[in-house]
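Subject: mismatched residue count in predicted assembly?

I count 581 residues in my input, but I want to confirm that the predicted structure covers every chain. Input:
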Amino acid sequence: MSELTKKSLTEIANLIKKKEIKSEELTQSFIKNIEKDKKLNSFVTKCSESALKKAKDFDKKPKLNTLLPGIPIAVKDLFCTSGVKTTAGSKMLENFIPNYESTITNNLWNEGAFLLGKLNCDEYAMGSSNETSYFGNVMNPIAENTVPGGSSGGSSSALAADLTPATIGTDTGGSIRQPASFTGTVGLKPTYGLCSRWGIVAFASSLDQAGPMTRSVEDCALMLEAMASFDERDSTSINKKKENYSKNLTNKIKGLKIGIPKEYRVDGMSKEIDKLWENGKKILKDSGAEIVDISLPNTKYALPAYYIVAPAEASSNLARYDGVKYGFRSSKGNNLIEMYENTRSEGFGDEVKRRILIGTYVLSSGYYDAYYLKAQKVRQLIKNDFDQAFKKVDTILTPSTPSSAFKIGEKKDDPISMYLNDIFTVPVNLAGIPAISIPAGHDNNKFPLGLQLIGKPLDEQKLLNIAFAVEKKINFKQMLNRWWEK
Amino acid sequence: MSIDKDKIKHISKLARISLDAKKTESLAKDLSSIFKFIEQLNELNTDKIEPLSSILNEPLRSRKDVVNDGKIRERILENSPQKNDEFFVVPKVID
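Triage response: the counts match. Full output below for your records.
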């Protein structure tokens, strides 16, 4: 394995700027690593040839005043990429080739990066283990037969295995932060509206948000800076000035108040996670921050409310897959209705069907008030909890997940136990606020565990700064034996 | 609430997804346990709470009504499973 692929995004960007390495050399090293992806299965589409061409073009005419000069980046296969298959992990979109580019990927390319490949994910981003993808399970580089988390599981796996220097995911209920936590990487879900949703295959529009996944906090700041923009084509995009997250990154966090919500100490949580959380508190205290006990009383209702809101929006969003304008069409059926029904039956996998049916039911006549309206009211209570807490503290510290990565198949047949994985991440999406997961230690199996920092709306800089301070003191080291290359 | 097979058949018809008997049965089981979980929300009194439909405090922005693309019929048709000249083709609707 080339040493180049192990370097941080920030380092390689600087090496290219200083003309110490060429984009072609860098791209070649990643392509070499990607050739050994077979057992991980993190890529759905590899763009080696076109990436190499773009690298050579860059070297001929290097544009060095960009954030990501000449850097190849693989992205979750939920972002539409012009001329490159975009599957969303579904049979329904197995052969879909968009003829337009998502705003987020376009922003990356404008900053000098180019596409290295499309990464596996749970079907339509619905899942917490990458086991719902039509293109097969993805394995976690930390151990064979272990899930990389989900839904951005291909992203977390490829990132941890050094197959891409950084990547982007989407987070509707934890789909960036949970896989980051499972693979010992950094993942940030920005404030709702900071990163454009235009050109991302929609799951639940009031919750979906794209964000960076990286191997360090510094890299995360750089990626977020490249991604965030006001976009007229997304009606929920926030119109604000661009921020220089990477330039303004500092580990000076003296005097900040960090809240510890008692409701996140859930039954059955392992001692190791408790220890991790205590350690995080200690580090923050030692860095001059003040620890404040807080309460978010409605936390336990976040997950049940999420499982009304998200499926309801998904059932509406996924109504577009009718086998007419694009995507898969069944050859069975004698009339239009039967064609629709067979197309959707054959094109969608089990988890997607489950969620469409939940959503259809809660929105159906006679049940709307009891479920959907109720969930929206609970969503208000969740948001109020955070609003109250942020009157007292700057940021909230919690574990990212209630456990470390689990075995493939372990939770597949029990939807509720799978859903409980997102218990610490879902409230943030309902409130539309930002949160970051950073690697904070290992459990007894040497599996990584993450800590989550939750911030006020548009307070990404502060989150990154605190994460940066914690990261320096924790000094987390990946322990990979690269089993997938053997 | 428990969700029986008839209810699953009804919802799947609304959602335009055909299901065989085995799938109908397993979905009835799954959805029953999911709704049992969801119904924890009934413990909460929300009578005086306003529903939150969007976390942004402002109404959705609309852009100016101007043509900013167009002449992309060919490109749009490229992804259709079945087309004829400039039309999407679907099974016969009217006899």
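Chain A is about 35% helix and 10% strand. Marking this ticket as 'not a bug'.
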